[in-house]
Design brief:
Elements (H helix, E strand, L loop, with lengths): L4 H13 L4 H10 L1 H4 L3 H8 L1 H10 L4 H24 L13 H5 L3 H11 L1 H11 L3 H17 L28 H28 L5 H12 L4 H9 L6 H23 L4 E13 L10 E13 L11 H7 L4 H6 L26 H17 L31 E7 L6 H15 L2 E2 L10 E2 L5 E5 L1 H13 L13 E5 L1 H16 L14 H8 L4 H6 L2 H24 L7 H10 L17 H10 L1 E2 L9 E2 H14 L10 H7 L3 H14 L15 H14 L17 H17 L17 H13 L11
Parallel strand pairs: 1-6, 4-5, 6-7
Antiparallel strand pairs: 1-2, 2-3, 8-9
Length: 778
C-alpha cells in the first residue's frame, strides 16, 4: 500500500496522540511479537524485516549509523561462533605431547565440515569474501576457451580432437565432465581450504591449544627443511607453530615412534633390515676437536610386517638349530656328509620345456626380445604393443586386496657402524632388545621384554651383513643359551645388492681384464660401451660404479637385440604371429641357474621368506622392491632430505628424527593432497635412447657383430665362469656347511671397492631410480 504526505501526517499525529515515539512504537511491536504476530497489521513487519533494514541502510542520514551497527552485531555474532569452535575438543591439539596417530588423523576437509556446521554465518561470509567476482570468472573462462581453441583442443573438455572434430576417448553413452566443470570443482575446493585456514588462525588466537592445522603445517615445513626465517614468518602470521613448539612436537613424535616399534615387534610377525650409512658433517670453522669435514659411520634400520604368513610360521628356532651346520652336536655327528649336490638347487622350481622346446628362462628371454623390438624398434612395430603379454609368473607374491602396501616401521639409527662381526652383534642386540623390546629367558639384562620364545627373526641386509652375521653366529656357536648364540637370527639376502653383485660380476668378467679393453677389438663389451660413453672410457675400465655398469648392460643389450632382429627380419614386415614364431626359434633350452637352498628350512618359514623377500611400499602391481633397496632409499632421505640443514644437520638430530621418516613423508603427502597441490611426481620419464640406438646400431651393422662370419677373430676370449663358479661352490660352500670357514661371497677378494665407494654407488642407484612409487612421492 503506497503512502502519501497526508497519510504519513495522520500516522504521525496518531503517534503524538498516543504520547509515544515512532522508535518506541516499533520496539513495542517487536518485543511483543508473540502477541501481536497474529495481527495482520503487524505480521508483514515481522515477516519481512529486511525491507526496513535495507531502508535504514539506504537512507543517507541513517547509513553511517546502520553500517556501524551491522559491523558491531556481525563481529559479536562471529565472535560467539569462534568461541564455540575454540572450546570444542575436536579442534584442540597438544603439540608438545603429540602422537603419530593424532598427526595422521588431522583432516582438513573434516575440519571444514565441522566449522561450517558450528559457525555457519562466519563460513558463509568468508565464502563470499574469498570467491572471485562473476565478471572475473567469465573473463578467465573466455581466455581458457580461446587458448584451447588455438591448441586444437575441444573447447569444453580440453581433450584432443581428430581431423573430423571428434573428441578422442569420447563416448556418447558416458557423460564426461567438462574442463570447466573440473576447474569449478577445484576452485570450490581451494576456497574451502582457504576458509579453513582463515578460521583456524582465528580460533588459534583465542585458544593457543587449537592448533591442529598449525601442527600439520609445522611438521610439513620441518620435513621440507624450510629456512628458519620462513618458519618464523609463517608462525607470526598464525599459519604454523613456533620453532620451539615444533621441536617439542618432533621430540614427542620421536618418543611415540619408539612405542610404535615395540608394539609392532611384540606381534613377532615383523622382519628386520639394516645397513651401514655414511654421513658427512661439514663445519664452517675447524677447531682442535672438530675437523672441517667429518665422515661418520652409522647404521640405519627398519622393520616391516610380514605378509602371507601363518601365525606360527616363524616358530622353528629349535628345529633350525638342530639342523644347523653350526650346531656342535650335529657337526660332530655328520662330519663330511654334505656336498654341493645336497643343495639340490635345480629342483627349487621344477621346469619343463614347452611344445616349442623352450624353458621358462628361454621364454622370458623371448619376451624381452619382442618387447625391445616393439618399444624401441621401428615405428611400424608400435602397433603390436597391446598384443604383448607379460611373461608368466612363477610363485608370484600376491597383493593383499585389503592392505596392499607393505607396513614399514622406521627404527632409530644407531651411532655405530656394522663393519665387523662384533659390531653386527651389537647392532642386533640393540635392535631386538633395546628398540624392539624383545628378549629371552636367558637375556638377563632385559627381563621385562617380550619373550621371543621359539620364534626366529628374519634379518635382511646386503651380502656383507650376511657374511658378518654368519661369522658372528659361528664364533658364538659354543655359547650355552640360544639368545647369546644369536640362534633366532635368520639372515635373508637383499636382492638389490644381489643385483649390484651381478653387475659387478659382469664388469669383472667382460671389461676388467686388460685384454678385454683393447681399442682394436670392436667385438668386446668395452668396445661397444666406448661407442656411447667416449668420455668415460677410463672410468669404465677402472671403477664404473653400479649405475654406469647397469646402463651399459641394459642399453647395449637392448640395441644388440634390435640388431639381431635386423639381421633376422631384414627382408619383410611380419605380423605379430610371425614375431612370436621368430622369437621362439631364436632360443634353445637352457640349464636353470641355482639360487636358493630350501631343503633344510622349515616349510612355513621358507614360505614367509619367499613371500617377503620383495616388499611393495606403494601397494601397486609391479612396484615390488628389494628390502635392502628400501633401506638404501631411507638412507638417501636421511642424508639429503630429512637430515636437517645448516645448524640442524647434526648427528644427534639425524638419530632423533630417523624414526620419523614415515611421519615426514605422510605429512608432506597430507598437505599436498588436502591443499590440492598438484603437479608433483617423482616418476621420471624414460631416457631418450634415440642417439644410443642409432650409434650402436650403426656400429653393430658395420662390424656385422650378429652375423655368422667364419672365421671371426677376437682378441679376448671369455672364460667359462659357470664352470669356475661350480668348482668354487663345491670347495668353498661345503666348508661352512660343516661349520668350517665362512660363506664365499661375490667379489670377496682384495680388489673389492671400499665401503665409501659402494655407498656412493647405492645412493646413485636410488637417486636415479626411474619409477619411484607415486604414493610415496617424497
Amino acid at each position: 500500500m503506497s503512502l502519501n504526505a497526508g497519510k504519513v501526517a495522520s500516522i504521525l499525529k496518531a503517534i503524538d496522540d498516543a504520547n509515544t515515539t515512532l522508535p518506541a512504537f516499533l520496539t513495542h511491536i517487536l518485543q511483543n511479537s508473540s502477541v501481536l504476530g497474529s495481527d495482520p497489521r503487524t505480521a508483514d513487519l515481522l515477516l519481512h524485516p529486511e525491507v526496513v533494514l535495507d531502508a535504514f541502510h539506504s537512507c543517507g542520514n541513517t547509513r553511517p549509523w546502520t553500517t556501524r551497527w551491522i559491523s558491531a552485531k556481525a563481529a559479536a555474532l562471529f565472535s560467539d561462533e569462534l568461541e564455540q569452535l575454540a572450546h570444542r575438543p575436536e579442534n584442540k591439539f597438544n603439540a608438545s605431547h603429540a602422537t603419530i596417530s593424532q598427526l595422521e588423523d588431522i583432516d582438513i576437509e573434516g575440519m571444514g565440515v565441522d566449522m561450517e556446521s558450528v559457525a555457519p554465518h562466519l563460513w558463509t561470509t568468508l565464502d563470499e569474501l574469498l570467491s572471485p567476482p562473476e565478471d572475473q570468472i567469465l573473463l578467465r573462462r573466455r581466455k581458457r576457451r580461446e587458448r584451447r581453441k588455438r591448441k586444437g583442443l575441444d573447447v569444453e573438455t580440453g581433450s584432443k580432437m581428430d581431423v573430423d572434430g571428434i573428441v578422442e576417448g569420447g563416448d556418447e553413452d558416458n557423460e564426461v565432465e567438462t574442463a570447466e566443470e573440473a576447474l569449478a570443482r577445484q576452485s570450490e575446493a581451494r576456497i574451502r581450504m582457504k576458509q579453513v585456514v582463515c578460521i583456524a588462525i582465528m580460533i588459534n588466537n583465542r585458544n593457543a591449544r587449537c592448533n591442529k592445522l598449525q601442527s600439520l603445517i609445522s611438521v610439513f615445513l620441518h620435513a621440507c627443511n624450510t629456512p628458519e626465517n620462513v618458519v618464523n614468518f609463517v608462525s607470526h602470521i598464525g599459519v604454523a607453530n613456533s620453532p620451539s613448539t615444533t621441536n617439542s612436537m618432533v621430540t614427542s613424535l620421536s618418543a611415540d615412534a619408539k612405542r610404535v616399534i615395540r608394539e609392532s615387534a611384540a606381534t613377532l610377525q615383523d622382519a628386520w633390515a639394516y645397513d651401514n650409512v655414511d654421513v658427512t658433517f661439514k663445519h664452517t670453522t675447524s677447531t682442535p676437536d672438530t675437523a672441517p669435514s667429518v665422515l661418520v659411520h652409522m647404521t640405519s634400520r627398519m622393520a616391516f610386517r610380514l605378509k602371507h604368513v601363518v601365525s606360527d610360521a616363524l616358530n622353528c628356532c629349535a628345529e633350525l638349530w638342530r639342523l644347523s651346520p653350526m650346531n656342535p652336536l650335529r657337526r660332530s655327528e655328520s662330519e663330511g656328509q654334505y656336498t654341493f649336490r645336497d643343495l639340490d638347487f635345480v629342483n627349487l622350481h621344477p621346469d619343463s620345456v614347452d611344445k616349442y622346446g623352450l624353458t621358462r628362462r628361454s621364454r622370458f628371454h623371448a619376451y624381452i626380445f619382442v618387447r625391445d623390438l616393439i618399444r624401441h624398434g621401428p615405428a611400424y612395430f608400435r602397433q603390436f604393443e597391446r598384443e604383448l603379454e607379460l611373461p608368466e609368473v612363477v610363485d608370484g607374491i600376491p597383493l593383499d586386496p585389503e592392505n596392499p602396501k607393505t607396513e614399514i616401521v622406521h627404527v632409530p639409527m644407531m651411532d655405530s657402524p656394522c663393519a665387523s662381526p662384533g659390531e653386527n652383534a651389537d647392532v642386533l642386540e640393540d635392535t631386538f632388545a633395546k628398540q624392539a623390546g624383545l628378549g629371552a629367558p636367558d637375556a638377563d639384562d632385559y627381563p621385562e621384554n617380550t619373550q621371543i620364545g621359539n620364534n626366529v627373526a628374519l634379518v635382511f641386509g646386503d651380502l656383507g651383513v650376511g657374511d658378518k652375521i654368519q661369522s658372528g653366529q659361528a664364533s658364538r656357536c659354543e655359547e650355552t643359551t640360544p639368545w647369546r648364540r644369536l640362534q633366532f637370527v635368520v639372515y635373508v639376502m637383499g636382492l638389490f645388492h644381489v643385483k649390484m653383485a651381478c653387475a659387478d660380476a659382469i664388469w669383472r668378467l667382460f671389461i676388467k681384464p686388460k685384454d678385454a679393453q683393447s681399442s682394436t677389438d670392436s667385438y668386446s663389451l668395452f668396445g661397444h660401451a666406448e661407442q656411447v660413453h667416449r668420455k668415460e672410457s677410463n672410468k669404465i675400465g677402472t671403477k664404473p660404479g653400479f649405475r654406469l655398469t647397469h646402463n651399459i648392460v641394459l642399453n647395449i643389450g637392448m640395441v644388440a637385440r634390435l640388431d639381431i632382429w635386423r639381421v633376422a627380419l631384414a627382408k619383410h614386415r611380419p605380423l605379430f604371429a610371425s614375431l612370436e614364431a621368430s622369437q621362439r626359434n631364436m632360443f634353445l633350452a637352457a640349464t636353470p641357474l641355482p639360487i636358493f637352498d630350501a631343503d633344510q628350512i622349515h616349510s612355513e618359514t621358507w614360505h614367509a621368506i619367499r613371500m617377503n623377500i620383495l616388499i611393495n611400499p606403494s601397494g601397486k602391481p609391479g612396484n615390488f622392491r628389494g628390502v635392502d633397496w628400501q633401506v638404501e632409499h631411507n638412507n638417501l632421505y636421511l642424508q639429503k632430505i630429512y637430515g636437517g640443514r645448516y645448524a640442524n644437520h647434526t648427528k644427534h638430530n639425524i638419530i632423533r628424527e630417523s624414526s620419523l621418516l614415515g611421519v615426514f613423508k605422510n605429512a608432506r603427502m597430507q598437505v599436498d593432497r588436502q591443499f590440492r597441490i598438484a603437479g608433483h611426481s617423482t616418476k621420471h620419464s624414460g631416457p631418450n635412447l634415440e642417439s644410443t640406438i642409432r650409434i650402436l646400431g650403426l656400429h653393430f651393422e658395420k662390424t656385422r657383430a650378429h652375423e655368422r662370419i667364419v672365421p671371426r677373430h677376437v682378441q679376448y676370449q671369455i672364460q667359462d665362469a659357470l664352470k669356475v663358479g661350480q668348482n668354487l661352490l663345491q670347495t668353498a660352500v661345503a666348508k661352512p656347511m660343516r661349520g668350517e670357514g665362512r660363506v664365499l661371497l661375490v667379489g670377496d677378494d682384495e680388489d673389492d671397492r671400499d665401503d665409501e665407494d659402494e655407498e656412493e654407488e647405492e645412493d646413485d642407484e636410488i637417486e636415479d631410480e626411474e619409477d619411484l612409487y607415486e604414493d610415496d612421492i617424497y
